[in-house]
Amino acid sequence: MQTVRVEAENGSYDILIGRGLLRRAAEHLSLCAGRRAVVVADANTAPLYGEAVLSGLRQAGAEATLLTVPAGEESKSIAQLTALYDAFLDAGLSRKDFVVALGGGVVGDLAGYAAASYLRGARLIQVPTTLLSQVDSSVGGKTAVNLPRGKNLVGAFYQPERVLIDVDTLSTLDERQVGAGLGEVIKYGCIADEALFAQIERAGSRAALFTQLDEVIARCCALKAAYVKQDPLDKGVRMQLNFGHTLGHAVENAAGYGVVLHGEGVCMGMVAAARWGEAWGVTEAGTAERIARVLAAYGLPVTPPDLPKEALAKAMRLDKKASGGRVEVVALRKIGQAFGYSVDADALAKRL
Ligand code: GLY
Question: Which of ligand 1's atoms lies nearest the C-alpha of 139?
Fold first, then answer.
């Protein structure tokens, strides 16, 4: 098992990464001893891992219950949030007690925000079960629900007290979801770690990389922890984690949510951002090609689906980080070195 420490001014905690951790959940959840814990899972993760987490909590001396929400983005709603508050009240949860988020990004965001806001803050543990949530969304304290007018419009920065990553949970994930997570893994190499990128290049296939997965996930978590330490509230350098998101989000939006997965949009967006950087002379020549080669080797999308350019341009202008006709873009100097800059939205639209 590997441990990565997150030290941030709004919360410090350990991320535990390894195989079979849920089989020894009691050991890793001993911080819940003597407390109540409500495990929030979805219809996919509850039958697979609910029992292991519940019995681990009980063996650790906690009084634990399981709540199951429907699987899918629709659960990140105010209605579902209210249902969780009611269930927390029914379970007699106090601020000293725990919410345990067991699932991917949707469950992590929903249960995380419920914990952040219930009684002005109950205690939170993240048990992410998708590659994307293990390397990104469970770490760093971003929690949110959606409103009918957009994604993640209500939320809070709320750090968990522990993140428990059992790499074995990825064996039940479908290949497409694994791919979306791999896109984020490759992103870390692009923005901050040339050696990680080279390791992914050398492995050259999902099967080969999966033999090194504990180490790779731990490396991604350590990179994320460093960003979170420097910029816990996402006001500066943490923005580099959005490499590939300018076009990626626009594609997700324009295609209609669920058609292109977030991690897939990021893949296409990374190649586009590197091409823009090369065209503007800020990115080392050949970078886009190198990223595209790795993505292709891992069966990941390199180019966006055929979507109207006007729809993409409009979506980029509506990006949360766009204002005054300018769009914030993350670029690479070269693989392993990212920086942010702002670009005229019309100039960017011409590059699409
Ligand atoms: N998912 C990007 C961040 O946590 O800042």
Answer: 4
Torsion angles phi and psi, residue 283, rounded to 5: -115, 135
d(CA 92, CA 69): 19
What atom in ligand 1 is closest to the CA of residue 234?
5
320 pLDDT above the threshold of 80: no
Least confident of 49-53, 55-59, 195-199, 326-330: 326-330
- DSSP character at residue 37: E
If you measure from the C-alpha of residue 215 to the centroid of ligand 1, how many angstroms do you get, rounded to a whole number? 20
- Of 161, 109, 97, nearest to 138 by C-alpha is 109
Question: How far are the Cα atoms of 142, 164, 176 from residue 233, in angstroms, in the given order?
Answer: 9, 22, 31
Q: What is the DSSP string of 203-254?
A: H-SHHHHHTTHHHHHHHHHHHHHHHHHH-TTSSSGGGGGGTTHHHHHHHHHH
Tokens of 86: 């009611």
Statement: residue 318 has pLDDT above 80: no
Q: Degrees (nearest 5) of the Cα angle 123, 126, 130?
A: 165
Cα separation, 269 vs 244, in Å, equals: 4
Q: Rounded to whole angstroms, how far apart are CA atoms 131 and 321?
A: 26
Give 76-122 pLDDT, tens digit per residue: 999 999 999 999 999 999 999 999 999 999 999 999 999 999 999 99
